[in-house]
Write a structure and sequence with these properties.
Low-confidence stretches: 1-5, 27-38, 40-52, 72-112, 116-122
Number of strands: 29
Largest sheet: 4 strands, mixed
Strand order of the largest sheet: 4-11-10-7
Number of helices: 3
Structural class: alpha+beta
Helix content: 10-25%
CATH topology of the largest domain: Immunoglobulin-like
Radius of gyration: 52 Å
Strand content: 35-45%
């Protein structure tokens, strides 16, 4: 029989609860009727107050589950920013954060976001822009120069990197955003450069750079002529180093026409030298090839050089001999200037006075036995075959 009072209590409690729910629904309807005339911020304040306790409790539970026990102030968003409804998190009342009960489904805030606790893990949307908008074209073998990529919209300093694509071979990008180098391969190169600011936000820009092949005619051999261009037979040439402007080194040189002077040589690296051992006028033609990759390598236009190799002037001394005297010993030594020793002497015309001998070293010696005038022509030959001749009229006195 005691169950009756309990039933009455339950019925009374249910009636009270129903009245409260009806009153609440009536207030909500009235609030909506006034929303066209009232400031939306009033709704925000009212709803925030109504759900503050439940939201804070739910957010606290969510933070503990994530192991995030930071104080409330440390979890607040930075001042100013953009409310991005695509970023979602769980709020204490079980609703998604982008269901903005203030009536502002998405938008911007001033010094405080609509609900700093509900979206404590939602980063501020930062737009980082890179400049310039485009990069210039380049040419194989020609320095691309230095181009600096800059960034704005985030927190300096920025770190730059190649996000995707391929830089032109021979070019490089530093973390400071400096693009430089000498392109080695022709083609069109598309790549994306990314910039990351000090807070970890990033942005990127796509670039397309055209690298043109080098015109082979711009591959030029230097110097224009040999120095010296005339040498004496037997002269050791000063080392001549041919060089090339344009293209991509190292370069290779090749003889494509003519003949090098005997005794000289040309290396593949363009070094020319040696000892010219044969007289004559020698014209030879060179072509230089660079190290450009496919579709290279490139070749220079042919370039000709001329070297004249001449005989030296060889002089025999003394210019006269004698007189000699019958029965008296005679001795003399010839000397040669010009050419390259040692020199070899020989009698090439005429005759010696009887009793006199002439050696290959240029020595005259003996005792004349016959008086008279005798004509003798002698020759001096250096080690490269260059010669000089001297004729003597030798008088032998009785």
């Amino acid at each position: 029989m005691r169950a009756v009072p309990n039933l009455k209590v339950c019925l009374a409690f249910a009636s009270l609860l129903f009245a409260l729910i009806a009153a609440s629904l009536g207030c909500s309807s009235a609030a909506r009727d006034r929303s066209d005339q009232a400031d939306p911020s009033d709704n925000v304040s009212a709803l925030d107050s109504r759900y503050a306790g439940a939201r804070e409790e739910g957010a606290s539970v969510a933070r503990k589950q994530r192991g995030d026990e930071r104080p409330r102030d440390e979890r607040r968003r930075p001042s100013g920013g953009t409310w991005d409804r695509r970023d979602r998190c769980e709020r204490g009342d079980g609703k998604d954060c982008d269901e903005d009960t203030s009536g502002r489904d998405a938008g911007s805030w001033g010094t405080t976001p609509p609900d700093p606790d509900a979206c404590e893990d939602d980063p501020t949307v930062v737009t980082i822009q890179l400049a310039p908008a485009s990069l210039p074209a380049g040419t194989v073998g020609t320095s691309y120069g230095t181009h600096t990529i800059t960034a704005a919209g985030g927190t300096a300093p920025y770190t730059f990197s190649l996000a995707s694509g391929t830089l032109p071979p021979g070019a490089s990008l530093t973390s400071a955003g400096i693009l430089s180098g000498t392109p080695t391969t022709a083609g069109t190169y598309t790549f994306v450069i990314a910039a990351t600011d000090a807070m970890g936000a990033s942005g990127s820009r796509s670039y397309s750079v055209q690298i043109s092949p080098r015109d082979p005619a711009t591959l030029t051999i230097s110097p224009d002529a040999l120095n010296p261009s005339t040498v004496i037979v037997g002269t050791t040439l000063p080392q001549e180093q041919f060089t090339v402007s344009g293209g991509v080194g190292p370069y290779r040189f090749a003889l494509v026409a003519g003949t090098l002077p005997p005794g000289t040589a040309l290396s593949s690296g363009g070094s020319f030298g040696g000892t010219a051992v044969t007289p004559g006028v020698f014209t030879f033609t060179l072509v230089a090839t660079d190290s450009s990759p496919l579709p290279g390598p490139l070749s220079s236009a042919p370039k000709s050089f001329t070297l004249s190799v001449v005989r030296p002037t060889i002089t025999i001394a003394p210019a006269t001999l004698g007189p000699m005297k019958v029965g008296v010993l005679f001795e003399a030594q010839l000397a040669t200037t010009g050419g390259f020793g040692p020199h070899t002497y020989s009698l090439v015309a005429g005759s010696l006075p009887p009793g006199i001998a002439f050696s290959s070293t240029g020595r005259w010696a003996g005792t004349p036995v016959t008086s008279g005038t005798f004509t003798s022509s002698v020759r001096s030959t250096d080690r490269f075959g260059s010669t000089g001749t001297q004729t003597y009229a030798i008088v032998v006195e009785p």
